[in-house]
Amino acid sequence: MSLKVKDLSVYYCMRRGDCRAVEEVSFDIEKGDSVGLVGESGCGKSTVAFALLRMLPFPGQIVKGSIYFNGEDVAEYHEEEMREFRWKKMSMIFQGAMNALNPIIKIKDQITEAIMLHDPNATKKEALARARELFKMVGLDPGRVEHYPFEFSGGMKQRSMIVMALACNPEFVIADEPTTALDVTVQAQIMELLQLLTKELNITLLLITHDLSVVAETCKKVIIMYAGKIVESGTVIEIFTNPLHPYSQGLIASIPSIEKSHNQTLASIPGQPPNLLKPPLGCRFHPRCEYTQEICRTDDPPIEELKSGHRVACHLASGRIQSESYSRKV
Ligand code: SF4
Which residues contact 72 (CB under 8 A, 6 or more apart)? Predict the structure, then answer.
C-alpha cells in the first residue's frame, strides 16, 4: 500500500469568496506507517481526510493536485470505483461517535449493511458473524450487536465506530479525532485499542488530532498543518526533540508536563488562526510568529527537506533569515 498526495488544494467556493481550506499539501504514506496529522481546529486536517475519500461536503471541491493510492489516481475514479475504494481500501473512523451511528437502527444492521454493500457475495449470516468477530476484537461482548446505539456508553459507541471502519478489511484507516467527547480514561483505552488493531491487522493509520501528545504515543510520523498548509513534517522523535517551525515549537511548548510544578503556567500561541477567505500574504503564520521579518510578510516559504525526512516551511529554519533568539532555541 502507498498513498501519495501531491499539491492538493481544496476550496469551499462560496458567494463570499473561496475559503482556501487546504493549499498545496503534499505527503507520502507507506504501508505500515502510523502518521499523525496535527493542527488547530479549522486548519484543514479533516478537509484533507474528506478529500482523500472524495467525500467533501458541499461546497468543498478539489481544485488542484493528485491523490495516488497504490499507484492509481483516486481523483480519476468514477462513482462505482469510489464505492469499491471507500471502506474496502480506505475507511474512516468519524469524529463524534455520539452522533455518527443511527440511534434507532440496531448496531448489527448498520454493520452488516456496510459489509453486504461492499461484498455482494456475503450473506447476512456471514456479515453478522464478521460483526460479532469484530465486536470481540474491540473488547465488546459480541451479543451486544443486537442492541441499539442509544443503549451504549460513549466508549462503546466509539468501539462500534471502529468496528464499522474495519468491517470491510481496509488497508488504510483514517481516524478523525477518535477520542473527542470521551472522558480521559476511555480516551486512553481507545488509543491503545487503535494501536493494537493497526498492528494486528497490518493497517496503515492516519490519525487526525489537535493533540500532539496523543500523536507522540500512537504514531511514528507527524505532519503539522497551519491555516491549510503543511508547515512541518518528520518522525515523531525528530519533531519532538528538534521542532524547527515556530508554530510546532509553540504547540510542543503548550503540552502540560507532569514533571514541572503543578502551578506551572501553560504556554500558548498568541493570536488567532487567520480567516481562510483572505489568508495573510507571505507566511500564513506571520501575524502570530515572534520572529517575523519583512520577507515573511511578502514571500510564502516553500516546504523544504532540511534533514532526511524532516520537512519545514519557514524562512528562518531554512536560513534565508537569521534570528539570535531562534538559534538559541533550536
Ligand atoms: Fe515565522 Fe517567518 Fe518562519 Fe513564518 S517564515 S514561521 S513568520 S519566521
Answer: none
- Asked if the structure places residue 66 within a domain, the reply is no
pLDDT in the model for residue 189: 87
Q: Is residue 177 part of a domain?
A: no
Cβ–Cβ < 8 Å for 198, 205: yes
Q: 185 pLDDT band (50/70/90 cuts)?
A: confident
Distance 247 CA to ligand 1 centre (A): 9
Q: By percentage, how much of the chain surpasses pLDDT 90?
A: 78
Pocket test for ligand 1, best of 299, 303, 315 (most atoms within 8 A of CB): 315
pLDDT of res. 33:
95
Total structural domains within the chain:
1
Please report the atom of ligand 1 found closest to the CA of residue 231. Answer: 6
Write out the residue range of the structural domain in which residue 330 sits.
243-257+266-330
Is pLDDT at 247 greater than 90 in this prediction? yes
Nine-digit cell string for 230: 503543511
* H helix intervals, 4-54: 45-52
Determine whether the shortest distance from the Cβ of 285 to ligand 1 is under 6 A.
yes
Name the helix (H) or strand (E) containing 231. Answer: strand 229-235
Q: Which residue has the cell 448496531?
A: 107
Q: Does residue 323 lie in a domain region? A: yes
In a domain, 227, yes or no: no
* 286 CA closest ligand 1 atom index: 7
**Lowest-confidence segment of 49-63, 229-243, 251-265 by average pLDDT:** 251-265
- Going by C-alpha positions, the residue among 133, 177, 173, 140 that lies closest to residue 156 is 140
What number of CA atoms fall less than 13 Å from residue 99's CA on the CB side?
A: 4
For the full predicted model, state whether its pTM sits above 0.90.
yes
